[in-house]
Amino acid sequence: MKEYRTINKIAGPLVFVEKTEPVAYQELVNVVLFDGTIKRGQVLDTSDELVVVQIFETTTGIGRDSGIRFTGETIKMPVGKDMLGRILSGGGKPIDGGPEIVPEKRLDITGAAINPYARGMPADFIQTGISTIDGTNTLVRGQKLPIFSGAGLPHNNVALQIARQAKVPGSTESFAVVFAAMGITKEEANYFMQDFERTGALERAVVFLNLADDPAVERIITPRLALTTAEYLAFELGMHVLVILTDMTNYCEALRQIGAAREEVPGRRGYPGYMYTDLACIYERAGMIKGQKGSVTQIPILTMPGDDITHPIPDLTGYITEGQIVVNRELHRKGIYPPINVLPSLSRLMNLGIGKGHTREDHKKVSDQMYAGYAEGNDLRGLVAIVGKDALSERDRLLLEFADLFENRFVRQGYDEDRTIEDTLNLGWELLSSLPVEQLTRIDRDLINKYHPKLKAGAKKE
Q1: In the chain, where does the domain assigned CATH 3.40.50.12240 lie?
Q2: Candidates 3.30.420.60, 2.40.10.170, 3.20.20.140, 3.40.640.10; CATH matching 7-70
Q3: Distance from CA of residue 391 to its chain's centroid?
Q4: 13-23 pLDDT, tens per residue?
Q5: Alpha-carbon separation of residue 178 from 6, 22, 201, 246, 435 (angstroms)
Q6: For residue 60, which of 44, 37, 43, 42 has the smallest C-alpha distance?
Q7: Domain 362-459, CATH 3.40.50.1980 — does that match?
Q8: What region holds the ATP synthase A/B type C-terminal domain (predicted)?
Q9: 266-312, pLDDT tens digit by residue?
């Protein structure tokens, strides 16, 4: 292996090397310091004159006299069945005090693109136990459904609750969770580890933790390591895998930091122009393959800077993914958990995974009716602030009360409360029974007769 001592410049996490033989993009690099210490890096850019290497650790101690060795390999993730129940660093090293992972395979972390023709159609309902997701923004196997949140909101608690409770009702197939946290504090990392161990969710999970003081470069590879692990569990072991990535905003900040070090021409708000492509390379690794048993479902979580849903990160994410779950600051101020606002939330694949044979025949109609009632009641709150409650009609008063009921009974639930889809739909009917039957215009009459609590009670008496 040749060693080059032609370092031209060091900028942030980047080392610029001159006069090399042709090297490959993403090739692994060993940097040999004067005392024999070896630091690892990866080729970020290559040309006839210059090779740019990003270092996975700090560049402290690297000088012009340091040796550069190109290994001819790319980053590979060691994977095996015994990964379940393990907690790993953002670079894939065990940090739970357990032994090193004995790999059955070593897979390239960039993954293999799924041929669109080979993709299976998502159709199986995943129950998260959270009514605002299961009832009105249903998650389906193979879907990518992000959670849009804001700084200081309890999105991490929501993520842990989903990781703990997610299941496919009535299915005996193996289900696993891959949880990757990027740019988190040590306190948050300890909280995640304690929660996984306390609830027993760790037994079926693989956890990757990248801390805020870890190098930005490591943050770039963490989601790729997690997704490579998920693809192995799904497509080689036949498991159904839910991947939770938090926080994608920290990932994008790392992209911007490295782009600035490379002196790239910035795009919107200083983020790289290729950020859309980069995010797509991560999100599009969710899905199902025809003829394969397993599936990869993704829930990326991101904090919107300034609660701005038009910010480049949520904006580009929304273009790539199949909907979004929006965590709302106003609901959080009211003390409602989980503070998920169903009005701007959307699951584009919801209709494929609900209804007879999936959840229940009344699911779609109940969801539409609750959404319509809550939207109208929420709008009336603005009117009440101007004209007062006394100016409202009887119908409007009922809708206003329904909006409060919806937030306090349907949206609000306990951190450890795991509602079945039947619990969620029955609760929806209970709330809708506070409105006159003639106002339930989005539900067929035969469904009203079958599920409406008051009509069911009347039929039983007769």
Answers
A1: 76-352
A2: 2.40.10.170
A3: 44
A4: 889 999 888 89
A5: 41, 37, 11, 11, 42
A6: 37
A7: no
A8: 353-451
A9: 888 889 999 999 999 999 999 999 988 899 999 999 999 999 999 99
